[in-house]
Amino acid sequence: MALLDVGHISSGYGEMSILHDVSMRVEPGEAVTLIGPNGAGKSTLLRTIFGLLTPTQGQIRFDATDITGMIPPLLVRRGLSYVPQVDNVFPSLTVQENLEMGAFVRHDGFEQRLEEMYTFFPTLRLKRKQRVGSLSGGERQMVAMVRALMLDPRLLLLDEPSAGLAPRLVGMVFEKLAEINQTGVALLIVEQNTREALRLSHRGYVMAGGQVRLAGESSQLLHNEEVGRLYLGGRR
Amino acid sequence: MTELIVYGVVLGSIIALGAIGLTLLYGILRFAHFAHGDLMTLGAYVVLLLNVQLLPGLGIPEFKLGSLSFGGRMLGALVISMGVTAAVALLIDRLLYRPLRARHSSPIIFAMASLGMAFIIRSLIYIIWGPQFWFYAQDLRPAWELPLEVRLRPDQVFILVLVLVLVVLLYVFLQRTKLGKAMRATADNPQLAWVCGIDTSRVIAWTWILGAALAAAAGVLYGVDAQLRPDMGWSFLLPLFAAVVLGGIGSPLGALVGGLILGVVQQVSTAFLLPTYKPAVAFLVLILLLFIRPRGLFGSA
Lengths: 236, 301
Known about the structure:
By secondary structure, chain A is of the alpha/beta class. Chain A contains ten helices and ten strands.
C-alpha cells in the first residue's frame, strides 16, 4: 500500500483554485520528483499535502489514514516533514537550536537523533553554536533539511532544495538527499534542476496547469523526448 | 550628577521591564500593544488593593524587611498582582485579539483595538480608585549615604535588585527552556514554527503571560518609587516605545539597554532643563541614535 496517496485533489488560495483533480502516490522508501513549469502547482501540491492549504475536493491518505485538512502539528507527529523553499530556517537561532525546534514535538531520543544527524552532517556539528543567519546558503539549506529530519520522518517533502545554490552545492544537496533516501526515508521533491532530481528519484510526475500530465519511471521521463524538450533543457 | 545617573538607572530599569514585555509581544504578535502602559497601572493598583486596602483589614500583618518601606506581605501582593495582570491579559486576548487573528486583521486594527483597550483599563481604574494619587506607604525612610554624594533609598535598591532578578530569569527562560526557544523561533519565523509543529497559540498565551507579568512588576515598582496615578502607565507609554525602538524592535536585550539609556538621559536632563521636557529629551536621543543605527542598537535585518 502506498505511503502517501493523493486522490483527486483540488486546492488553491482562497478563491483562486490552482490544483485540479490531482492524483499521485509515494511508496514507502521511494523518491519521487515533481517537475513542470513555474505555476504548474507543484509547490501548491506540497503545501496542500502538509496541511498549509485545505483542499476543496479529494482525499489525502498517509499510511492508510485520512490526513485531509490535518494541521502540521498533527502531521509531524505522524511522520511527515516539510522543507519550504524560502525562509526555511530560524536565522537568529543557533544551528543546534534550529534542530531542537525541528524536534519540538519529540519527547525522547532527542540527544541520540542529534548525534546521528551530526555524524551524517559533520559540518553542522562544527557550527552548532553559530547563528544560522551567519551561515552560507549551502549550510543554511543543510540546516533546513536536517531540521526536517529531526523527527525521523517517513516522508520528507522538499520544495526546491537546490534553489539559489551555487552549482557545486547543488551536487552536494542531491548527494545528501540520495543518502537520506537510502536510510529508508521516502522523498517527494519539487525541483527546477529536473535532471539531477530525476536521477536520484525512482519515479516522477510532470505537472502543468494544475494537473498531472505525465507519470512514470524516472529513467522513462529522462528519455522521453517531449519531457526532454519541454523541461530538461532539450539535451541529454 | 552621579546621583542623577543612579536615579536614571532606577527609572530606566522600570522602563526596561515594561519595554521588554512590549518588544516580546511585538515579536510574536506583530502589533504595537498600546495598552501595555495601562497593564502597568493595573498591576500597580492590584497591589494597592491587596496590600493597602484589603489584607490589613483581614489582620494579615506586614513582615518588615530591613530598611524597606514595605515587607513580605507586599512581596506576596506583587506576585499575586503579576498573576492577576497576566490573567487579565489572557482574557483580553481571548475576547479581543483572538477573534481579530481568526479573521486575519491587519496590524493597524490590532493597534487600534489595543488603544481602545488602554482607554477601557484606565477608565475602570478611574471609576474604582478615583483620580487622586495613592501611596503604598506613608512613612518616609531615610536614604543611605553612598560614596560620590549619592543618596539612595533602600526601596530604590530593592527596585534595581528585583529588575535584575526578573531580567536574569527571563534570559534563562528564553535561552535555556524549550518553550523559551520556541518563543524566539516563533518571533523569528512564525510560518516555520508552525511547520515544525510548534503550537503557536500556546506560544502566544505565554507571551501575554510574560509581558503582562513584567508590566505589572514595572507598575508596582514605579508605585514603590513614586506614587500611583490612573494615568501613570499611559505616561510611560512613550518611553516604553522609545526604548523598544532604540534597542531594536523585537530584541529583549535591546529593550533592556534602551530602557536604561532613556532613564539615565531623562534624569540627567533635569540638571539642565525643567523635568517637563524629559520626554522631549528622550525622543531627541531616539532620533539621533536612529540616524546612526536605523534598526536600533540590537536590531537585525
